[in-house]
Amino acid sequence: LSGGRAALRRRTYQVIIVDFELPDGRGTDLLQGLSPELTSQILLTGHSDYPDVRELQRAGKVLVLFKPVDPAQLLTWVR
Predict the structure, then answer these.
(1) In 3D, which of 38, 39, 46 has the Cα closest to residue 19?
(2) Euclidean distance between CA atoms 78 and 47, whole angstroms
(3) For residue 22, what are the β-bridge partners?
(4) N or C: which end of the chain has fewer CB within 10 A?
(5) Predicted TM-score of the model (pTM)
(6) pLDDT digits (tens, 9 = 90+) for 36-79
(7) CB under 8 Å to 51, separation ≥6 — which residues?
(8) Distance CA 28, CA 31 (A)
(9) What is the DSSP string of the chain?
(10) Rounded Cα gap, residues 22 and 29, in angstroms
């Protein structure tokens, strides 16, 4: 999380793709506070049963993709 937060402080991104489970926390923690109007957010996960994943999906703020993700399909969503 600390490396991702540092990168987000240095510059802005049009798209952020983050895994739900990171070595030092959750990808959802990294996405908190980011404006979905300014940055498209994609969360990759193999866990559809976590409440915060379901909440993000319902709110429509983050595109939640379940693993395994087809790389060609991911590029289509990014474009």
Answers:
(1) 46
(2) 21
(3) 25
(4) C
(5) 0.79
(6) 777 888 889 887 777 777 777 777 778 888 889 989 988 888 88
(7) none
(8) 5
(9) -HHHHHHHHH---SEEEEESEETTEEHHHHHTT--TTTSEEEEEES-TT-HHHHHHHHHTSSEEEESSPPHHHHHHHH-
(10) 10
Q: Give me 78's structure tokens.
A: 């990014």
Sequence letter at residue 1: L
Token pair 């489970």 is found at 21
Type of residue at 30: L
Structure tokens at 35: 């404006």
Q: Residue 58 burial (CB < 10 Å; 0-12/13-18/19+)?
A: exposed
Determine the residue type at 73.
Q
Q: Is the peptide bond before 51 cis (omega within 30 degrees of 0)?
A: no
Give the tens place of pLDDT for each residue, 16-29: 999 988 899 888 88
